[in-house]
Design brief:
Layout lengths: L1 H16 L1 H5 L12 H21 L8 E5 L7 H4 L5 E6 L2 H10 L5 E5 L2 H4 L7 E6 L8 H14 E15 L2 H7 L2 H11 L13 H10 L2 E9 L6 E10 L2
Parallel strand pairs: 1-2, 1-4, 2-3, 4-5
Antiparallel strand pairs: 5-7, 6-7
């Protein structure tokens, strides 16, 4: 698909220019200022806290096979490998995957270049756990829905999926532009002509919950967060795939 070719090229540019900052944006770290140890430690803290939260809320997981969707250079993947028998990190950028393999220290972690076409080739009922943080918000909503359908297919019965998505832009006047994909992309094209673009989209919480219900997902936990940045309302969703 033409859209995914553009998306791949865009994130390849980030991977070449400033990969760690592109994955975990921080104004103080822009310009290749992330120290690798600090960067990967942030991933360990995130996964440790995530799985502690899951345990605290009585959510049961089979710790066999997990997916890190939007893995980048493996910031989260390697710590998932401390809990799960096998972990696969998927990312649309071949350059990010090259770095992930370079930085990888876990034998049970693998990395693949993957877009919507590739993920359709994965076998059904393969994964026990799928995690995606600060990734789906960078994909146009119509394709997010397609990804979620595929996640439902490749997740095992009673498997758990946790993902974050922006809900809405806080400023009601700018919100009109940000939620119109055509106008927003026209703005990006004019402003960032020839440059890599970090697109951010949203899906309203109510619409997302109805969609997931139609896929036979059961909502287990809903957390409001600030992961999309201070200008956005954002949520992390915890779902179980029912039989």
């Amino acid at each position: 698909m033409k859209y995914f070719v553009k998306l791949k090229n865009n994130w390849d540019k980030f991977a070449i220019k400033d990969p760690l900052w592109a994955i975990l944006t921080d104004d103080n770290k822009k310009g290749n200022k992330w120290e690798k140890e600090e960067f990967f430690n942030s991933g360990k803290k995130e996964i440790d806290n995530l799985l502690a939260q899951i345990e605290t809320n009585g959510i049961r997981i089979n710790f066999d096979k997990a997916m890190d969707f939007g893995c980048g250079v493996g910031r989260l993947t390697q710590t998932l490998g401390e809990y799960f028998n096998n972990v696969i990190g998927f990312d649309i950028s071949p350059k990010m995957i090259e770095l992930a393999n370079e930085y990888n220290k876990k034998r049970n972690c693998r990395y693949n270049v993957c877009d919507l076409i590739n993920i359709k080739k994965k076998q059904s009922n393969e994964f026990d756990f799928i995690y995606s943080n600060i990734t789906l918000q960078h994909i146009q909503p119509k394709y997010v829905y397609s990804y979620l359908e595929e996640f439902q297919r490749i997740l095992k019965n009673n498997g758990i999926i946790v993902f974050q998505l922006a809900h809405k832009f806080k400023n009601p006047f700018i919100r009109i532009l940000r939620e119109n994909v055509f106008l927003y992309n026209l703005y990006l094209k004019i402003r960032f002509i020839g440059w890599e673009k970090m697109e951010t989209y949203c899906i309203r919480k109510e619409k997302l919950l109805n969609f997931m219900k139609s896929l036979s997902f059961e909502l287990l936990l809903l957390e409001k967060d600030s992961k999309a940045g201070p200008k956005w309302e954002s949520y992390t969703y915890y779902f179980k795939k029912n039989k």
